[in-house]
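Moderator note: this is an archived Q&A kept for reference. The question asked for a predicted structure of one protein chain; the sequence and the answer are reproduced below.
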Amino acid sequence: MSFRTVARRILLALGLPAVLFTLWWYATAGSTNFYFPPLSDILRTFGEVWTGERLASDVLPSLIRLTEGYLLAAVIGVGLGLLIGTSRVVRDVLEPVLELFRAIPPPVLVPVIMLFAGIGDTMKVLVIVSGCVWPILLNTVEGVRAVDDVLSDTCRSYGIGGPSRLWHLVLRSASPQIVTGMRQSLSIGIILMVISEMFAASNGLGFTIVQFQRSFAIPEMWSGVLLLGLLGFVLSLLFRFAENRVLAWYHGLRQAQRNS
């Protein structure tokens, strides 16, 4: 990849955020509105609030809960998606129930989950799972159902079945859609991480932002919102990097098809 291509991608990725921050800076410069302080005050407060101690006590627990909930949702979503996608009987039996639960907004389940899981980290992880699992599950089902019939017949002809067929054919064929579902779930997981920490919590980003809001520490509150945006941006970049490594064969195939 040439230097020019890399520079162009960086410019496209950072151009719009830079423009938005510039507009925010000038729009709030000299602001006397208590609820919309100048961006310069927010950035100054950001450096004062989000120190190493605060990152360890609030940001790290949030990231651990997000990671646990996200990975658990991925395991459940891919596993159940493979089962539903490969069996028409299972799909016909489970589809009405899945449609029912999918229609329930995850934040509504917070009080219900609290009844069974308490108010600790388990509740927060389960709230994240309750929302993250659906994009992964549905995309896995569609990916499994879209496996090429010719490839399936070839595997059958060569006597490839069981775990070998599942690993080398089904999962590999469905992996682009599975990764798409995981990408969608990542943003949902960040939202639910914050929501879960607004209920009966003692630490975490959501808890801290609400505490700032309740104590009318408005610049501190905005600094927490800004940190959430930066966190989502960094996680998105990390996910894209991992996706490019895992699906290098798929992106290479698409590039070859475009060039042919």
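Archived answer notes: The first helix runs from residue 3 to 28.
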